[in-house]
Amino acid sequence: MPYNIHSKLTDNKPSIFSVMSALARKEGALNLSQGFPDFGIDTSLMEHLNDAVRKGLNQYAPMAGLPALREQIALKTAKLHGKLYDIEEEITVVPGATLGIFAAISAVIHPGDEVIIFDPAYDSYQPTIELNGGKAIQIPLTFPDFSIDWKQVSEAISSKTRMMILNSPHNPSGAMLSQNDLKELKKIVANTNILLISDEVYEHITFDGRKHLSFAGDEELAARSFVIASFGKTYHTTGWKMGYVLAPKALTKVLREGYQFMAFSAHTPTQYAFAKMLEDTSSYLNLGQFYQRKRDLFRQSIETSRFKIFPSYGSYFQLLGFDAITHEGDVAFAERLTKEFKIASIPISVFYKNQTDNKILRFCFAKKDETILKAAEILCKI
Ligand SMILES: Cc1ncc(COP(=O)(O)O)c(C=O)c1O
Predict the structure, then answer these.
(1) Mean per-residue pLDDT, 315-335
(2) Which of 132, 169, 283, 324 has CA 20 to 30 A from 114's CA?
């Protein structure tokens, strides 16, 4: 090669989601690995998208997003969390939550800055911090309940700490932050320069009456937070890649400075379609119930299996422990399940800095009932 390339990442392996999905395709396995639904979308959403295209909404949207969509986002946030974000200066529509997270991190992280994240973490956080010259400080969540050890967090704070990234409902564990967590977090960041990313892509997928606590709903936290949302998770359209970032004016300003050169704007017809969907609040308010039924179907159908069923309070993931079945590592076992038993999952160790292996696999239950039942039948035979 006439040139040298050095990866900017300390770990430049392809993401586990692409690896497991590719293996599932190759092996013809049921794919409960990557987090996406295998069922169709609301027909009215299809019609709104068609309408937008026919109406000629096919050119660049304004950089911050279509005004009609930003208005609906502002109304929804005000109704659910009591905070009215300004549509001109505090709401930015982006092509997916992952890009929103990238734009937020790159807006404020300078070389040498430290960002606290919690393992197991969504896999974009650490590489995005590194691509921007920052350092990820990875704190493990407690096991087996996946909560935050606040004492460990306060000990990890240094003069270089610039940001913390939290995610609730949590991927992969389904755990959720409590009022007490928010209180502890506020104590730690009070009188500091620490900014927050609150990754809330599963905001509407909560179970058993649990309420999602958005950082938007807490004045002190909202004042230093980028709140990240994804329409992909809410409307079963992960392939449409559309999300948004809520942040106070000063943070939105720096976010947009960089974002205008990352994507400039997001897909116009899709924005129109989501604006229309948001007019009907039931399109997101019933989502928790919808997925709770699927979670319960999955859990009930594997009750007689040898897997240990962990709690799932939100998100569309179920963790299953397998230490009663084999001493294999979780990556090896996940691969064997895909090849031999034709069911794909995600091994949890890959979400940890030190590949901590608690012998757990993550299964996505955002699937047709028949897929869930087929998966359960396989799992019960293992
Ligand atoms: C915690 C978390 N954040 C962000 C995303 C990405 O969302 P999007 O597809 O809108 O980029 C995901 C998707 O799996 C996720 O689980």
Answers:
(1) 96
(2) 169
The residue whose CA has the least distance to atom 13 of ligand 1 is 35
Assess whether the C-beta atom of 203 lies below 6 angstroms from ligand 1: no
Residue 245, phi then psi, degrees to nearest 5: -125, 125
Q: Which of 165, 173, 201, 202 to mutate to test the pocket of ligand 1 (most atoms within 8 A of CB)?
A: 201
Distance between CA atoms of residues 368 and 242, nearest Å: 23
| Ligand 1, pocket-test mutation among 17, 99, 233, most atoms within 8 A of CB | 233
CB 243 within 8 A of CB 124: no
Assessment of whether the complete model's pTM goes beyond 0.90: yes
Q: Is residue 6, in this structure, part of any structural domain at all? A: no
Same domain, 329 and 275: no
CATH of the domain at 214: 3.40.640.10
Q: Which of 264, 280, 296 is the last residue of a domain?
A: 280
Give the pLDDT band of residue 216 (cuts 50, 70, 90): very high
Residue 1 Cα to ligand 1 midpoint, Å, equals 36
pLDDT of residue 354: 83
* Alpha carbon of 35 to ligand 1 centroid (Å): 8
Whether 181 has a pLDDT exceeding 90, the answer reads yes
Q: Is the predicted pLDDT of residue 11 greater than 80, yes or no? A: no
